[in-house]
Design a protein that fits this description.
It contains 12 helices and 13 strands. The chain has 403 residues and is α+β, with helices and mostly antiparallel strands.
C-alpha cells in the first residue's frame, strides 16, 4: 500500500546535487518573487524593437559561401560601428565649430540617404540588460517580463503550497524556467517520488507561459513527465495581472497537480510490483528503439554498414546494462525497465552541441552546453529526451496489457 511521506526542510541534500543536471541557480532561501528574480538570475526585462535591413544588395567576402554576414555586418563590424558612434559623440562634444559644422553636414547627408529598409511586420525581442536579441516575432506580439510570468507563484509561496527550488535560463534567456516543489513526497515501494511543477516561458515565441508537472524519483535520480489518461501533465497559463485571476490559476495548478501525481503513484506502483525478465526487457527495447530502415553507408575502403542501426543497437545494449545493475529492491521489475530508459535519456543519450548553442551561450563549457541541451530536450514539449521517456512509459503498459 502506498504511503504519503512528509518531507522535512527546504534545502536539497547532497544526493540531490545533480537534480536537474545541476543547471540553473539554487533558490533555497527565496521567500518572495523578488528573491526568485534576483537569486535566479531573472531580474531583467525584454523589449520589442524595430528591425532594419540593407537597401542595397549585400556584398560578401570572396570565398564566403555561407552568406551568413554581409561585409560590415559581422559581429566584429557591429562592435566597430558602436565604437564609431561613440567617437562621433566625442567629436560633437569637443570639436571646434568648423569641425562641428562639417560633421553635422556629413550626418545630414547620411540621413538623406539612409541605406536601410524597415521590416514593418517583424520585430526583434531584446534582452535589455545585455542588449542581446533573443528572437524575431510579429508586430502583434507583446513582451511579458519575467516578473509578470512569476506572479502566479506569489500566493502559492505565501501559503506554503510550494517551495521554489531552482531557476535558470536556456539560450541566454530566450527560454526561462523556475522549478517549485510541492511539500509532500509519495512512497512507491522502495522508491520516493518528489512532486514538482516547472513554470516556464519563452521570449522568442517558442513556448507559452506554462506549468508542467515533473515526478522526480529520488532513489533512481530520474525525472518523469509522461502523459497519463484522464490527467493533465502541462497547463498553458493565461497571462493576467489581476490578483484574483492569479489565485484562481494557482488553485487550478495545485488541484491538477494533486490529480496527476496521484495517478502517477498508481501507475508506478503497478510497475514496481510487476516482474520483468531480460528477454522481456530486450523485446521492450526493440519496441521503443527499433532498428531504422536499412540505410547503408560505404566507407573509403568499400565496406558497407548501417550506422543508424548500429547506434540503436549500442543504445539498447547500454540501457540493458543499466537495467541489469538496477537497485536490488527494484531489480528485474517493469519499473526498473522504465527507470533504465529514463536514466539513459537524462545522463547518456547522445547530445549534439550546435554552433547556434555556442553563439547563444557564450562562456559555457562543452559539458555545460551538453547538460543545458539535455535538460532542455527532457523538458521541451516534443524534445527528444521527453519524447523517448513518454514512449517508454506508454510502451511498458502496452506490454502489460498483452499478458
Amino acid at each position: 500500500m502506498s504511503v504519503t511521506v512528509k518531507t522535512t526542510g527546504h534545502k536539497i541534500n547532497e544526493k540531490d546535487g545533480r537534480r536537474w543536471l545541476g543547471r540553473g541557480r539554487s533558490l533555497n532561501e527565496a521567500t518572495s518573487i523578488q528573491d526568485v528574480l534576483q537569486m535566479g538570475g531573472l531580474d531583467w526585462t525584454v523589449s520589442k524593437r524595430p528591425i532594419l535591413t540593407t537597401a542595397a544588395l549585400p556584398e560578401y567576402a570572396e570565398g564566403d559561401t555561407s552568406r551568413r554576414y554581409p561585409n560590415g555586418i559581422t559581429e566584429q563590424g557591429v562592435d566597430k560601428n558602436v565604437q564609431l558612434l561613440k567617437a562621433a559623440n566625442d567629436v560633437l562634444q569637443f570639436s571646434s565649430q568648423d569641425n562641428l559644422d562639417l560633421l553635422k553636414a556629413c550626418i545630414n547627408q547620411m540621413e538623406d540617404n539612409v541605406p536601410f529598409l524597415p521590416m514593418h511586420r517583424d520585430f526583434a525581442v531584446v534582452r535589455d540588460d545585455l542588449n542581446l536579441p533573443l528572437g524575431v516575432l510579429g508586430s502583434g506580439y507583446s513582451c511579458i517580463d519575467n516578473r509578470d510570468c512569476l506572479l502566479l507563484l506569489e500566493s502559492m509561496m505565501e501559503e506554503g503550497r510550494v517551495v521554489v527550488e531552482r531557476a535558470g535560463t536556456f539560450n541566454s534567456g530566450a527560454n526561462c524556467w523556475v522549478i517549485a516543489r510541492f511539500p509532500n513526497s509519495k512512497s512507491i515501494g522502495p522508491e520516493v517520488m518528489d512532486q514538482f511543477v516547472k513554470i516556464s516561458w519563452a521570449h522568442d515565441g517558442s513556448e507559452k507561459l506554462s506549468a508542467t508537472f515533473i515526478a522526480y524519483m529520488k532513489r533512481s535520480e530520474i525525472q518523469l513527465s509522461p502523459q497519463i489518461e484522464n490527467t493533465t501533465v502541462s497547463i498553458e497559463i493565461r497571462h493576467t495581472k489581476h490578483a484574483k485571476d492569479r489565485i484562481a490559476i494557482a488553485d487550478q495548478i495545485f488541484a491538477k497537480g494533486e490529480q496527476y501525481f496521484s495517478e502517477m503513484q498508481n501507475k508506478l506502483t503497478e510497475l514496481v510490483t510487476s516482474s520483468m525478465t531480460n528477454d522481456e526487457m530486450e523485446e521492450y527495447l526493440e519496441t521503443i528503439l527499433p532498428d531504422p530502415p536499412e540505410k547503408m553507408v560505404v566507407d573509403k575502403d568499400g565496406n558497407k554498414s548501417n550506422k543508424a542501426s548500429k547506434r540503436n543497437e549500442n543504445s539498447r545494449g547500454r540501457i540493458m546494462e543499466i537495467f541489469a545493475h538496477s537497485d536490488s529492491q527494484i531489480n528485474h521489475t517493469k519499473y526498473a525497465g522504465v527507470s533504465a530508459v529514463a536514466k539513459w535519456c537524462d545522463g547518456e543519450k547522445a547530445i549534439r552541441v550546435t554552433n547556434k548553442d555556442k553563439t547563444m551561450n557564450p562562456g559555457l563549457s562543452e559539458d555545460e552546453l551538453k547538460d543545458d541541451s539535455r535538460l532542455f530536450n527532457s523538458w521541451k514539449k516534443g524534445g527528444s529526451g521527453r519524447a523517448m521517456k513518454e514512449k517508454a512509459f506508454a510502451a511498458i503498459f502496452k506490454e502489460k496489457e498483452k499478458k
